[in-house]
Every structure is written in C-alpha cells, then in structure tokens.
C-alpha cells in the first residue's frame, strides 16, 4: 500500500497538469515581431502590470508593449493548497534577504526567502491568494502626505470595479460587487481548526467580520482570489480576456536592464535582452515600471536614479539623487505556530494525497486542494 501511495503522489502533478491542459484554451502571449516604437511600455506583467496593460489597451489607437522576464504560469500553480511548492521554482526570482537584526530569529543566518514572481501574473501566481484591500486609514494617510487621488474614497470605486465576488454572504453588503475581472470567493472547504481560531478571536473580544467591509479589525474565514476552486491570478483576470487586442503586444522571457533617459530627464526607451539578444524599444508617451518591489527599484538604480553614493560606488552615472529602495518594509508574518492536536481537525497530507480528493478536485473543483494554505485570517 505504501508503494501505491508513493506512485500516486509522484503521478499527481502529471494528472493535474493534463487536466488543466484539457480545459484551458491555448494561450499565446509572445508577439513574434515587435515594433520599434510604442505609445506605452510596461515593464513587468505582475499584480500591477497586468491591470495597467488591460486598461491602457482599451484604447485601440494606443500601442502597448508588455515586457516580462518570465513566461506563463503552469497548471500546477492553479492548485491553491500547494502554493508553497511553487515558490523557489522557475516562476520565482528566488531572492533571499540579507541577515536581519530585528527579525527572522528562527531562521538560519536570520535570513528569509523572499518570493517574487518571475511569470505573467507576477507574485499573484506565488502568493497565498488572500484578498485584503488594506485599511482605509492608510490610503487617507497617503492622500494627506500628498498622494492626490489615493484617499480611500478615491480608490474604493476601483476595488468595486475590479471585483467579481462569489460569496453570497457578503457580495451584497455594499462593500463588494459582481461582474468585475478578479474573482473573489471563500474556499469551499474549511476545517474544524479554522472554526476554533474564529472562536478564539471571539473569546478575546474580536468580532467575526468582513475585514474588507465596514469593520476592518476582526477574524474571518479568508476571502481569496479563487475561481472555480483554482487560483485566479492577474494574468487570468486581466490579460487572458484581452489577448485578441491587436494593439497589445508581449515580449516574454525578456529582461529589462536599463531605462534610457534623455538629457532633459525624460524616459525615452528601454533596453532589454530577449532570448539572449539585446534590443531597444522606444516609448512615445510613457514607460511604466511595474517590475515589483525589488526589481523596479533595481531598474531605477541601473538607469541612474537612486542614492548618489551607491550609484557612484558601482560606477553608474547619476541622473537623479533619490532615496530609491530605502525604507522598504514587508508585512509581518509570524511563521508556523506548532502544536499537537488530539484529533485530526486540520488538512493532513494523508487525507489530501488520495485518489478520491484528486478526483473530486478534477471533476467538481470541490476538494481539500481548493483550500489555500492560510486557512484562517485575522487582522
């Protein structure tokens, strides 16, 4: 029996990949012959870049080029419960932090892996799919500090526009909407352990609440970017529906190495490597950097925008002395809380990797595999 289970687990990725190959329509992103000039060039087709590409290409007269260092996500990336196995793969830049002094105490050398998506959809292909808009107070603070148009009242309509909420308990409460691009739903499977966490929150005085609603502090079963039991990345939500647009071009497996800036400090073009060949694409109107928190800052510095001392040390001519890359803070993550249970009330590997669960996932999208790895959420 042990041998049968081992063989089954080894064949699981093949089975699921064949399933997605059968149901997904063929998707071709790469544009064979690129133009010399575009109206807009978008560097990075991740969580932000995919949205921007979809929006700008709505104008049929605007020529839009999307440059992405990776390719398309695999079928395995769709399975919510195995999100952690996608990290540190070819879809990930596989960054690690430098040794920390005030965190990462439980990690070797006090260094942490820092997953960043190298794929269409970016880190929305690697993350745990939690749908959390953030606190309205943070947006209002940005506006107070000078970010015009970023107050909560300004951005809230766009959250509604983008969302297609499938949770009947909250979709009509005034804080959510249907019919948008990005599918949001609850996992169809919840564990008794998750319910215990909710009860513990209530015991401490925190309500069960929609943390994307009127009250943003409390406990809840997570809202997640799930569509029919599978991950809904920004590629699926915002790019797949618009691939037929003739004015939207893609250059995949293309690494941008520099933004070319004129003497009057206007970004004019980008330099990139495509399949080992150096190329330049010119922008008539704008260049949008959406290459992620690490790579956008790196690209600015490679282009001469950053701290003068750092750029001069690397021999990069300084165009603008700015604190690029400073004060970067990732969100707090407590790591695993480990304890023994008297009863099997959580998702166990022995329950998950069974023919029944795989069949249920493939045939009905109702299975343990639909459960993302964060089976509860609190703020």
From TrEMBL:
> InterPro entries, from UniProt?
FAD/NAD-bd_sf (IPR036188), GMC_OxRdtase (IPR012132), GMC_OxRdtase_N (IPR000172)
The protein's matches in SUPFAM superfamilies, at most eight in alphabetical order, are given as: FAD/NAD(P)-binding domain
Write down the Gene3D superfamilies for this protein, in alphabetical order: FAD/NAD(P)-binding domain (3.50.50.60), Glucose Oxidase, domain 3 (3.30.560.10)
One example GO MF annotation:
flavin adenine dinucleotide binding
Domain Glucose-methanol-choline oxidoreductase N-terminal: from-to ranges: 117-140
List UniProt keywords, sorted A-Z.
FAD, Flavoprotein
Q: Which family does it belong to?
A: Belongs to the GMC oxidoreductase family.
What name appears for this protein in its UniProt entry? Glucose-methanol-choline oxidoreductase N-terminal domain-containing protein
Protein species of origin: Ornithodoros erraticus
């Amino acid at each position: 029996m042990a041998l049968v289970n081992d063989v089954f687990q080894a064949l699981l990725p093949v089975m699921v990949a064949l399933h997605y190959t059968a149901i997904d329509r063929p998707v071709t992103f790469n544009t064979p012959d690129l133009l010399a000039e575009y109206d807009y060039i978008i560097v990075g087709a991740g969580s932000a870049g995919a949205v921007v590409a979809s929006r700008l290409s709505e104008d049929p007269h605007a020529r839009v080029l999307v440059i992405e260092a990776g390719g398309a996500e695999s079928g395995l990336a769709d399975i919510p419960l195995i999100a952690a196995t996608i990290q540190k793969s070819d879809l990930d830049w596989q960054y690690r932090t430098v040794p920390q002094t005030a965190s990462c105490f439980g990690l070797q050398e006090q260094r942490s892996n820092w997953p960043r998506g190298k794929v269409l959809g970016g880190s929305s292909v690697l993350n745990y799919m939690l749908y959390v808009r953030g606190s309205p107070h943070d947006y209002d603070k940005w506006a107070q500090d000078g970010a015009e148009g970023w107050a909560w009242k300004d951005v809230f309509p766009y959250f509604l526009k983008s969302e297609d909420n499938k949770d009947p308990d909250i979709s009509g409460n005034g804080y959510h909407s249907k019919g948008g691009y990005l599918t949001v739903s609850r996992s169809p499977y919840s564990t008794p352990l998750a319910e215990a966490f909710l009860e513990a929150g209530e015991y401490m005085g925190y309500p069960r609440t929609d943390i994307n609603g009127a009250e943003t502090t409390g406990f809840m079963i997570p809202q997640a970017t799930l569509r029919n039991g599978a991950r809904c990345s920004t590629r699926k939500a915002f790019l797949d529906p618009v691939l037929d647009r003739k004015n939207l071009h893609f250059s995949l497996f293309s690494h941008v190495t520099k933004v070319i800036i004129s003497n009057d400090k206007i970004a004019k073009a980008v330099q990139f490597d495509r399949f080992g060949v150096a190329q330049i694409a010119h922008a008539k109107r704008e260049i949008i950097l959406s290459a992620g928190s690490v790579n956008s800052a790196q690209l600015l510095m490679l282009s001469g925008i950053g701290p003068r001392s750092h750029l001069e040390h690397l021999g990069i001519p300084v165009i603008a002395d700015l604190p690029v890359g400073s004060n970067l803070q990732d969100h707090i993550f407590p790591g695993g809380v480990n304890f023994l249970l008297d009863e099997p009330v959580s998702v166990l590997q022995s329950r998950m990797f069974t023919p029944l669960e795989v069949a249920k996932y493939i045939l009905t999208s109702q299975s343990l595999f639909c459960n993302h790895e964060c089976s509860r959420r609190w703020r």
